[in-house]
Amino acid sequence: LPLNELTVSSIAKLVTSVEAARLYRGRGGELMRAAVSRLIECLSLARLALTVKQQVRLLDSLDANLKQPNEAIQGAAAAGLRALMRSYFPVGPKG
Predict the structure, then answer these.
(1) Is the Cβ–Cβ distance between 75 and 63 less than 8 Å?
(2) Is 24:32 a contact under the CB 8 Å cutoff?
(3) What is the pTM of this model?
(4) Contact, 50 vs 26, CB < 8 A?
(5) CA triplet 8, 14, 15: central angle to 5 degrees?
(6) Contact 27/21 with Cβ under 8 angstroms?
(7) Rounded to whole angstroms, how far apart are CA atoms 30 and 73?
(8) For the stretch 41-57, what's the b/e string if a residue is b when 16 or more beta carbons lie within 10 angstroms of its beta carbon?
């Protein structure tokens, strides 16, 4: 069942909303980082129609999460990055 454009846009904006609300700080911040990384992984695996700007925004979020000292966050970010790259930034046979 395809999602309408408004729903896809709302889902893609969740990451920005979490960051704007500063939910990465304080209690639960590490859980939020891991959850956002998982959300990006799922969005990518579902291959939702995202704009290039949205794709780059998600990439920036994963990049920030990869730099965290917590291994669980790094692992979730790596899984998200793998899915994002395969879905939205494919590399052809010639590189």
Answers:
(1) no
(2) yes
(3) 0.91
(4) no
(5) 120
(6) no
(7) 7
(8) bebbeeebebeeebbeb
